[in-house]
Amino acid sequence: MADEHEHDHPEQDETAEQRVVGELPDVSKGTARPITVFGNPVLHREVATVTAFDGELAALVDDMFVSMYAADGVGLAANQIGVDLKVFVYDCPDDEGVRHVGHVVNPVLEELPAGRRALDDSAEGCLSVPTAYMELARPDFAAVTGQDKDGNPIRVEGTGFFARCLQHETDHLYGYLYIDRLSKRDRKDALRQMSEGTPKYATVPND
Ligand SMILES: [Zn+2]
């Protein structure tokens, strides 16, 4: 997910008391990889379930964090660096200023109870739809279950912008971009914005 909240990104706000939920990654371990964009088949189909919780998976998570930071994103799914596995990483603020950092393997979005279905229609962007932003209504609370890179079961929940991130990244791994949830007209507008802009990070060219 692209960073649409740059002005209040915790990293750039030196005055706020910063609360971090999760463990900051060791960015010296990973390598930045270029980002796949709209039209690349790996973004438009469900990717594979992770079954091997090994060093290769840990190295993938390291690369994903570094790739996300290099592109100034707040979330990244494995197929956004061309890897056919259900993994996402995030470093994303919620609407209370709490910074959430982590990764989820094989995420499944929990069905929301009827009482928690309030919608938030903030703007959303995606590193794989560079330079485009559109408003999209999503529930302002989300919970995801899955595993960590060692195979332990985990559950991550969040509100506001972080809830949006959890939904956006899980969608990626099932082959959906946020623009697939827009009206036909807004989708076309987002693709027009993308065609008119130039990404500030390395992308994988489409054939
Ligand atoms: Zn995205």
CATH architectural label: Alpha-Beta Complex
CATH topology: Peptide Deformylase
Total domain modules: 1
Spell out the helices and strands N to C: EHEEEEEEEEEHH
Unreliable runs, pLDDT <50, ≥5 residues? Answer: 6-10
The oligomerization state is single chain
Counting DSSP E segments of at least 2 residues, the number of strands comes to 10
Report the structural category. Answer: alpha+beta
Helix content estimate:
10-25%
Q: What is the rounded distance between the termini? A: 23 Å
Under CATH, the homologous superfamily reads Peptide deformylase
* Count, helices: 3
Supply the CATH class: Alpha Beta
Mean pLDDT: 93
How much of the sequence is in beta strands? 15-25%
Q: Can you walk me through this structure?
A:
This protein has 207 residues and is of the alpha+beta class. It has one domain (6-196): Peptide deformylase (Peptide Deformylase), CATH 3.90.45. The protein is built from 3 helices and 10 strands. The protein has helices at 55-70, 160-173, 184-196; strands spanning 19-22, 75-77, 87-93, 98-109, 119-120, 123-125, 133-135, 138-139, 141-147, 153-159. The strands form 3 sheets. Strands 1, 2, 3, 4, 9 and 10 form a 6-stranded mixed β-sheet that branches. Strands 5-8 form a two-stranded antiparallel ribbon. β6 (123-125) and β7 (133-135) form a beta hairpin. The longest helix is centred in the N-terminal third of the chain and has 16 residues, at 55-70. The protein starts with 18 loop residues before the first strand and ends in an 11-residue tail after the last helix. The model is unreliable at 6-10 (pLDDT under 50). Bound molecules: zinc ion. Zinc ion binds next to α2. Residues 1, 126-128, 168, 172 line the site of zinc ion.
